[in-house]
Amino acid sequence: xxxxxxxxxxxxxxxxxxxxxxAVPFQGVGAYKPTGRIHAPEISSCANYPEDGNKxxxxxxxxxxxAGLSDGMTISTHHHFRNGDVIAVEIFKIAQExxxxxxxxxxxxxxxxxxxxxxxxxxxxxxxxxxxxxGPLGEFVSQGKMRGTGVLRSHGGRYQAIQDGDVEIDIxxxxxxxxxxxxxxxxxxxxxxxxxxxxxxxDSEYADKVxxxxxxxxPFPCIPWQIQGNHVDFVVEVDQxxxxxxxxxxxxxxxxxxxxxxxxxxxxQFCEEAGLIKDGFSFQAGAGGTSLSIGNFFGEIMRxxxxxxxxxxxxxxxxxxEMLEEGLIEYILDGQTFDLDGIRSMRENPLHVNTSxxxxxxxxxxxxxxxxxDIVILGATEVDVNFNAxxxxxSDGKLLHGIGGWQNCLFGKNVILPIPLFRNRIPVVCDEVxxxxxxxxxxxxxxxxxxxxxxxxxxxxxxxxxxxNLPIKTIQELKEEAERICGIPVxxxxxxxxISAVNWVDGTVIDVVRxxxx
Amino acid sequence: xxxxxxxxxxxxxxxxxxxxxxAVPFQGVGAYKPTGRIHAPEISSCANYPEDGNKxxxxxxxxxxxAGLSDGMTISTHHHFRNGDVIAVEIFKIAQExxxxxxxxxxxxxxxxxxxxxxxxxxxxxxxxxxxxxGPLGEFVSQGKMRGTGVLRSHGGRYQAIQDGDVEIDIxxxxxxxxxxxxxxxxxxxxxxxxxxxxxxxDSEYADKVxxxxxxxxPFPCIPWQIQGNHVDFVVEVDQxxxxxxxxxxxxxxxxxxxxxxxxxxxxQFCEEAGLIKDGFSFQAGAGGTSLSIGNFFGEIMRxxxxxxxxxxxxxxxxxxEMLEEGLIEYILDGQTFDLDGIRSMRENPLHVNTSxxxxxxxxxxxxxxxxxDIVILGATEVDVNFNAxxxxxSDGKLLHGIGGWQNCLFGKNVILPIPLFRNRIPVVCDEVxxxxxxxxxxxxxxxxxxxxxxxxxxxxxxxxxxxNLPIKTIQELKEEAERICGIPVxxxxxxxxISAVNWVDGTVIDVVRxxxx
Lengths: 518, 518
What we know:
Helix content of chain A: 10-25%
Largest sheet of chain A: 9 strands, mixed
Oligomer: homodimer
Radius of gyration of chain A: 23 Å
Largest interface: A-B, 64 and 64 residues
Strand order of the largest sheet of chain A: 18-17-16-15-19-22-26-27-28
Number of domains of chain A: 2
Low-confidence stretches of chain A: none
CATH topology of the largest domain in chain A: Glutaconate Coenzyme A-transferase
Mean pLDDT of chain A: 95
Structural class of chain A: alpha/beta
CATH architecture of the largest domain in chain A: 3-Layer(aba) Sandwich
C-alpha cells in the first residue's frame, strides 16, 4: 500500500485514502463537523414483495443469489453469537462455490470461530475485512497477508459508518434465533437465543438487501421484533443459526487473581470516596474478571448505603442480572448479552432493556447514551503518560483485539481504566502507546495494583481526593514504577506497511496498525 | 388554483402540480414504481448536543425559536390525543405571536379541538394544512377558504410521504405523556397517557428539528422509548400535554341500532360461512359501533368453535382488550388506542404490542403488515357499483373526514365494508362515488342491512357462498334497491376549484375534492 500520510491531531501519521476511498485524519475530540446527509437506501415498494408477506426462500444460497451476490460486494454479519457464529463461514463458502470474488466482509466483530474464512481471504473470494480482527484473523492480517486494508471501528463507529454511507452494505445476513416469514426477528426466543440483535440494526436499516436466517420460524407476528421485517428481503430457515453456549467466553467469571481483586477493590473505593456512588447513579462495567469484581464491590457499597443505581449498561451477565433482580439496579440497558443468564433476563424481565449502537453509541446522532453514564469501567492493553490508551494491539505490535464499544464509552462522565501495571513483565503504563485508540483527554482515572493516577485535567477529582488514603500517584510515577520492575520495554518492530486503520467514533482516522516484521 | 389536469387510472381528473410541487396521477394498484432514494436527514454530531444529554429548554416558544421557526416552514404534530390535543393550537398561537407567516401544518390528523387554528389560517400564519380535514377545518376548507391545497393521505401514505421526501418536515413537535430530558418518550405512562406515539415516528426520524413536549418528565431512561431521544433536539416541560379523556369519541360504543346490529351479525355470519374464521386467523375491526359489534360476534364464534385468533389489529378499545385478556386473541398489534382500556392494556400487557405506520402501513417498504390480515372491516361514506369507495366526503360533497389507515387496510386478504344501504334517505351504494379513496379491485364484500354483495373478482368467495342462505345480491341490485327507497340521489354542486388532493398509498393522486357551491 503506497499512500500519502498526514499527521493527525494526536500526532499519528495516517493515510488520506484507504481501500480506494478518501479518509479524514482525526481532528480532535468533537472537532470534526460532518457535512452532508445520511445514507439513503433506494425507495422500495410493497408491489415488489409477496402480497401475503411470506418472504421464505429455500436456502441461504438461494437467498444470496436472489440478493444478487456478485464480485466486489460488501457483505455484513453480526456477532451476537460471539464465538458461536456459524453463518459467516457458511456465507463465504457459498460465495466461493459460486465463484464470486473480491468481497468485503463487514462483520460487527470477528471471533476465533471465523478462522476458516482465512481460506477465502487467501483464494480471492474475500478482498478484505472491515471489522475487529482479533484471534487468528488478527494474526493473519498482522503478517500483512490480507489484500486490502482493515478498518477497525467501534460499535458506535460502525453504526456511524453505515448511517453516513462511509460503508455501503450490499447484502446484510442476519442470524436470528427467532423470526417469522415476514422477516421480523429477535434474539431472545428459540433454542439458539442470543439475547438481542442490536448489532444488526444498522445493517437492517441501510443495507441494499437484507436476509434473515433463522432456526426457529414462528407464525407472524414474531414478538418482539428487534429487527423489523419491513426492512427484510428474504427469510431462510436453517437447522442451526448459532451456538449460544459459545457466547460465553473465559472472561465472564469474577477474577480470582489477588492482584486483579486488589485493583477491583481500589476502583470501588475510589468511586465511593470520590462520591460517584450515590442514589440514582449509573455505571457500565462490562465483562472481564476485574470488571465483574468491581460490579460486585459496587453492589456491596449500594447495599451498605441503602441506595440503588438508576441503570447499568450491559454487556449483561449473571452478576449484573442478580443485581437487577435484587433491586440494586432499576434498569439494565443492554447492548450485548454475555451469558445465558443475560439472555434469560432480557427475555423475562421488562426492566432488562434492549439497546442498539444507535441509541447507545452513534456519535453522529442527536446525542447518544454514552455521555449519560456516571462511571465507566474499561480495559486497555496499554496506557501512556498522556492517558492515551490502546485496546487493539499488544505491546508486540500484533493486532489481536477489536475496539468494541470501548471508544464510545470514553464519553462517560468518569472513565476509569483498572489495569495491571504490567503483564508478563511488560509495562502496561508506558511512554507512548503502540496504537492510540482513545485520546487521553477522555480518560479520567487509571487504577493499578500499585497506585491510582487521576488525569490532571480532572481538577475536580484531584481536589476531592486530596487527603485520601488511597495510593494516588501521577501517571509518570506509575510508568516509572513499571519500568523499575520490568525495565524499559522494547518497541515492536514494524514495517512501513499499513495493515489496518483505526477509526475514531466520528469516522476519522486516529491511528494505523502496521505489519509486524518477523 | 389554475392547474393542468390529467385523467388518472380510475378516470378522475387530477392536477400534475399541487402547492407548487409536481404530482403523479394514480396509475393503478401496484403500478407506480418509485425511483430514487428515501429522504436523508443531515448528519448530526454529538458534538453539537449537550454532553450530559440534557436537552431541556424552558418553554415551547424557546424551543421553536431555537429550532429556527421561520416563514414557510412545515410543522408537524401527531394525533394520538385525538380530540384532546392541546399542543397544535399552542404552536400556531406562538407562531402568530412571533409574526411567522405561511407555515404548513402537517398533522397526522386534525380534530374539532383544532378549530381555533382557523384564526391562523385566516391571518396568514398558516398557508395550508396537509392532513385530514374533518370537522370545522373540513367545513372551512370545503368553502374554499384555505390558501393552499389540502393533501389527504392515509396513515401509511403520510409515512411514505415523509420517508420519500415528498414532505420535508422542518420542525416536528411531539406531545409525549412521558419523556426524559434526553428526549426518549412514550405514550403509556403519566397522567396524560395516550397509549403510543407511532404516528410521530416518521416525524422523529426524518424531521430536521424535533421537539418533545411532556408533562411527565422522568429521570433517564424513559422506558419504553417509543420515540428515541437520539432523534430529538429539544425537550420542553409543560403543565398538560393532552387530555386523554378526549381520546374517546362517540364511536367507541357497541351499536344499539337494530339495523347496524343486523349488519354486524350478517358480516360475522358471512365470515363464518366463508371459512374465514379459523384457528390462527387475524382481523382488524377498528372503532365505530358496527365494527365493535362485529368484534363481539367474532368472539362468540371463536368461543363456540374453541379457536383463537393469532392477532387482531387495533385501534384498540375495551372490547378488543377483553378478548385479549380472555385469550381469544394472542396479540393485539396496535397503532392507536381508542380508549383508556386500550392504554392500560398496552402499558400492562406485553401481548398488546406497539406498532407504527412504518410496520403496518408504509407502502414504500419491503412489505408491510396490512397484507397479512385475513379479515378487514372498514367503513365508507359511499360505495359505487364498481366497488370503489369514498371515506372523505359526504354525498353533499363536503370534506368532513380523514382517510386514517383506511386505504392501507384495503390490502388485507378479505376487505369487508359493512355499511347501511342509505343514510338520512341518501343512498350509500351509488352509481359513482363523489370521491374515490379506494379502487374497487381491493374491496371484496359489501354488507348492508338489505343484502351482501361480493366483488365478482372474488370468484373464490362467489363459489364458496353459492347456496348460502345469506342475502347475497349483486352490487347493482343493492344500488337499485337504495334508489327505489330513496330516489336517485342529487349530485353535489361543485365549482372547479380544487380544495384538496386525495393521495393513494404510493403518493400518487387518486382523486381531488372541489369547492362546494353554496
